[in-house]
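BUG-424 | component: ligand-complex export | severity: low

The export step for histidyl-adenosine monophosphate jobs runs without errors, but we want the raw record kept on the ticket for reference. Input record follows.
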Amino acid sequence: MNDVLPEEIGCWQRIERAYARTMSLHGYREVRTPFVEETSLFVRAIGDATDVVEKEMYSFEHRGDDLTLRPEGTAGAVRAYLEHSVQGREAVTRWWYAGPMFRAEKPQRGRYRQFSQLGAEIFGDEGPGCDAEMIAMLVEFLRELAIPEIQVVINSLGGPQARSRYRDALVTHLRPREASLSPESQRRLATNPLRILDSKDERDRNAVGDAPGIHEFIDTGDRDHFGKLRAYLDALETPYLVDERLVRGLDYYTSTLFEIRGAHAKLGAGSTLVGGGRYDALVADLGGPAVPAIGFAAGLERLLIASELSPPTSATDALVAPLGEPAIGPGLALAGRLRRYGIRCEIDTRGSSLKSQLRRANQLAVRMVLILGENELADGSVQVKDLEAHTQERMARDQALRVVVDRLMAASRSADAPTRQGPP
Ligand code: HAM
């Protein structure tokens, strides 16, 4: 679990803002659900033979309630959707969320015990157009974050019946090879054989090498859905790879499944930036009506590692520098007036020397310093020091206000905007 210090927060906020903008452009609305839910919700939704439920949940008992820190956002979103009978108010619901998730995983680069997800869920749309729009939206979002070398991988898992037929076929294929599997996969053969497909262990990879693919088992409806998804992605010119071995670690998935991966060299074991898919049976499984659904989540820390955007520059625009106690009152007033114009400014109220205040200005990377010394106090003026233009002028305070506002506004208009403002 990490601290995020102020030096790093600018990058976080930039990604969060870009995400909120992408979401609102696509008709999603933000939802905030609790960080803690009943343990049984996650067990039922995610599946009791998954790594998340078996090994990674922070669960505790509190006054007779079995509770868990949320390891992901989908289960809570479905619970909230049902609890507030949202399906009765609108046919299609598009929700997004951002916030911390908790999994007791072995920490490494890009894998943490508290991490942040940017996620979304759509309830009530069963068509492949919805899947394609979501994937294309994510590709565009990752491009906006200047994440290079992304790869979209898709698969179809079919419905519960196809999954169960495939599971049987896979077990039939693997049983004679059981002794050559890794100990973990030997155990998985009985509990969750599909997970053996995405094991990274060389022994497991050899054993599943010539196993049958899932697409032989999915029914015509799902095959048709997948075909249309591919056609839509082609039409949107969104490149993708089909990987019949893609299964992912949560049991609620049905039909469309997808991952977006970043450059392995930079991200290592955490190269999956986004994971998502359909879960058309989950709303009913959790006691609701039959509502089809699809969603995804991106790991914010991984996006930060992968993004090549340069960190945002200074968070402060101006420093008001009163020299000595008598200048502090007029300095506070000047700072207040600047802030009313939206200028982010700091004031030194300790009566520090000019030298140390200029050092602070450099540290903050502000452009403008407004110095109030004895002479300026006497005639109501101020020294305006522009650290970028390397100029210093003494002027009346009203005029100084206009000069500072004009220069900073002009600079912010010409600066690289954090998100793309118009069509490319
Ligand atoms: P997930 O694949 O378990 O899916 O996680 C989604 C993303 O969260 C991963 O691709 C990764 O970027 C990030 N992530 C997961 N675990 C960690 C970790 N320990 N440290 C850092 N980042 C991590 C879900 O959570 C599903 N709820 C997604 C979804 C929504 N499917 C349908 N709707």
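Assignee comment: Attached the raw record above. The CA atoms of residues 367 and 389 lie 9 Å apart.
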